[in-house]
Amino acid sequence: MINFSIVDIVSSWFDEDLLQIFGLDPWYLLFGLVFLLMTGMMWVVKAVVEWMTVKNWITLLSYINCILIGFLILQTVDHSFSATQSSVLPVYYWSVSLLAISAYGLLLVMVRSIRTMARLIRKKSKKAA
User: pLDDT of 27-85, one tens digit each?
Assistant: First the structure.
């Protein structure tokens, strides 16, 4: 298992002696960077959501929100199993979960496309008649 520790990566960018002079811990630095990330994401995502709302893409917005909530639930399950040493999730937990999320999105796109095509064909046949 590969361990990606964000705090170690971020703290390696800065000299620890310099951080100690100013009385800073790497956790403060991480908090500031994540805070700036959220600020930037909010600025960008808000504009995209407003544009999607104007274009009436409510299905896509709903799917994206469901993906985020699904990841939250899957992470909670993963962490609860990681906390207890006696029970371990199967190796394929994340791959199968992500495949199911992607398959649902693909099915959603296909059903919506078929529905739109059927509606267009009906309109054309009514105009021809």
Answer: 777 678 778 888 888 898 889 888 888 888 888 888 888 998 988 888 888 888 777 76
* Contacts of 6 by beta carbon, 8 Å cutoff, 6+ apart: 30
Residues 6+ away with beta carbon under 8 Å from 63: 105, 108
Residue with tokens 């990841």: 71
Greatest alpha-carbon span in the chain: 83
Give the Cα separation of 34 and 62 in Å (integer).
Answer: 25
CA gap 20, 81 in Å, rounded: 36
Query: What's 88's DSSP letter?
Result: -
